[in-house]
User: Fold this.
Amino acid sequence: MGALLSFGAVVVLLLIPAIGAGALKLHSLFGVVIPYLAVIVFLVGLINRVIGWGKVPVPFKIPTTCGQQKSLPWIKHSRLESPATGGEVFLRMVLEVLFFRSLFRNLRTEKAPGDRVVYGSSKWLWVAGLAFHYSFLIVFLRHLRFFKQPTPKIIGIIESFDGFLQIGSPHLLVTGLVLFGAVFYLFLRRIFVPQVRYISLPADYFPLFLIMAIAGTGMLMRYFLRVDIIKVKELTMGLATFHPKVPEGISVIFYIHLFLVSTLFAYFPFSKMVHLGGVFLSPTRNLANNTRMVHHPNPWNYPVKVHTYEEYEEEFRDKMIAAGIPVEKQPEPREEEQPTEESEGKE
Amino acid sequence: MSKQPKPPKPDELAKSIEYKTPETQWMETPVKFKPGMWCYGSRPKYLEEVGMPNPREWSPADDDWKLPENWKEIVLDGMKDRLGKYRTFKLFMDICVRCGACADKCHFYIGSGDPKNMPVLRAELMRSVYRKYFTTGGKLFGKTAGARELTEDVIKEWWYYYYQCTECRRCSVFCPYGIDTAEITIMGRELTNLLGLQTDWIGGPVANCYHKGNHLGLEPHTIQSNIEMMCDDIEEITGIRIEPTFNRKGAEILFVTPSGDLFGLPGIYTCMGYLMLFHELGLDYTWSTYASEGGNFGFFTSNEMAKRLHYKIYAEAKRLGVKWILGGECGHMWRLVHQYLNTWWGPPDFLEVPKSPITGTVFENAKSTKMVHVTEFTADLIKHGKIKLDPSRNDHLKITFHDSCNTSRGMGIFEEPRYIIKHVARHFYEMPENTIREKTFCCGSGSGLNAGENMELRMRGGFPRANAVRYVHEKYGVNMLANICAIDRAALPTLMQYWVPEVDVCGVHELVGNALVMTGEKKRTMDLRLEPLPGMEDEEEEE
Ligand code: HEM
Ligand code: SF4
Ligand code: SF4
Assistant:
């Protein structure tokens, strides 16, 4: 259901530029206005989200500790899993963000004969997750060649690695395929793993279809429906230098690709993809496990009603005295009451 | 109140677990209250005693929960308020990608197969309402955006499932963003408590603890006489008379432990271990009858209630003029001491940085909170050779160690208890790697779920833990499950009785007490349970 809905939405998104830029020739709208708007929505939206989270206080220091705390000097402290200093937290975050450390722990729980459960290793999600994110990143970086004149060296280097297979002309770039494949795997997983299907919302399928469509149209353009790269670069350089112009004769597949990318950008801040920003702010990961060493203030800590010792003793004084437990105040008030006098009680 | 339903037989229960998903989408699958899976509603007096809202007689089995007139407004305002106060709450509402990595990591899911016990769905129960009232997408697109109306049925569903989560944080270990469903459960419980939906099993201890100083409601003279009874047993075992002090001003150290250690088996054996150790060291310490609870059922109610209950520890330390505080074996107590206490009531500048009077070790890791975990203290003693141990006295035990959720994932104390066990006993076996340390499984009864009426839930939730214990029992003949948590000591014996009856449960300091060679003691013929020590009985008869 959710998958069909999202698929339908992406088909509609394909048709909009096909009609708008193809049949109606609204090239400036699809080549300039919408991409600019999308980038603005992306930047403003993302910054807003991150600021929104950042404004909410972190009342307690509650890292999830996944390793030995720092305690006695002779006990080996797990610096990465239970970081005690800012530097160690930074390293933990590097592992999380660059290597998906937590996802690497993944296990698969299964029932085994004899009414048991066993836990098997399960790294495919991690592999596909990494493959997807890194190929996305590389594809993204590669595209910077369209926005920079001359093409930065580093991008040339990335591309030459990417095309190492040296198949076809233009050279096949592996990341595009990996991106498509990884996203397709994530999609299959959502369909075929019953638990994952059960929790999936349309908003989980939509980005997958959208990215597949982006990668698909991209590869279509590069290998099959060849577009005029010179003209495309004219358009993109125009966007990058804020002197937009729309050369004639760019085929509609390019406008479709660009529109899908614009949709991804504009949708990004309102979608689950904002985890890009959120992961850095997650209090269970980005805080040090040092709360007994360093006081952590809560900005909204407010006074609460408590039951004081005096109230407690008031209620139990007789019983305490009978049991020989020291009290602050003796029961019968003497002639001159001296509330400050401290009683040692019976020792 | 209805009779306590008995859980099915273990093999039937195990067979009934299936990891299948229902035909209907989860939003269209109404919650069904299964007997044995939920706790009774709180008696009104418990709420009144601590000033919580909407005290009344009610039962979760009733159709009408007698919610306040404006319940919806209360909940939505409560959500809004908390979304602005807790970054975890706000962020975890926003960034889940529903990748499902957490799904089969929850012991309640593993033991029940109920998809709403997958952490991600447990959180979606709340997220769907969040989307509806706090996000534009949810307001515009409703169900398509995963949003739903807040109705009384949703409240019931929240209540049912937020009391099927022990706030153990196992899910958060596996989540790529560290999303901690316990944080959502905590909010779910805060919000439902605004409507008076406390459970009886949590409400009672909270009210007791507030007025009497401890969950069990032990009054000062009872605390004293309980401990004296333990001293009688110790005298019988060792020939040594211990005379602990209570509420003594000027002691160097205040000792705080969960009240479960003062009452009930096998908790008191652990307590006897503390008493013997401190006596042998000649430690200048005192018990307090006022700060007589390290645990805190307030934490299973609301942050505010937790803070109210944990006021007593520092207040009492100040009144008595001690230098620092030593804390006993307890799980959630240590989550709170480690991650919350100092923020609520600290920094306690009237105390000194804890320093072991025996070894001179300064506990730098506790230099601000000024509270040391007893296994840190004891491990340090052993390391410096300050106590004499005869581990052969634990030879009749084949021990495995259960890492409690809170001390594992909310503190990271893994090595200290193991170091101690390995020095006080000679047969120690770890459970499989994926079931210990940060990946440890909950006892299934944490966060105030250790009641009697929800026994099926507890046995299901404890199934993964028991499953791992059974493994080492069969492989190595393990017969003792050691731990550092009072709730474990209360809950695990029932769990073991049900799943692996050959295995008993003990605290780490019970093992210490067994092995500790005390100055002037008579020959030990009994362990702390007053049971004959194998290999020593004959000699006893000769005497
Ligand atoms: C341009 C930035 C990013 C984009 C477009 C993006 C996009 C996505 C998408 C669409 C998914 C869902 C996959 C699914 O439905 O199963 C996903 C999942 C995930 N993302 Fe990202 N992400 C970005 C950045 C990051 C970063 C910086 C991290 C660092 C921790 C990260 C970690 C993950 C993980 C662990 C998953 C779950 C595994 C998976 O389903 O593949 N992402 N991301
Ligand atoms: S592991 Fe984290 S991101 Fe994935 S479904 Fe669970 S809570 Fe959501
Ligand atoms: S905190 Fe523990 S009990 Fe709660 S959802 Fe996560 S794994 Fe399950």
Summary: Chain B has a mean pLDDT of 96.
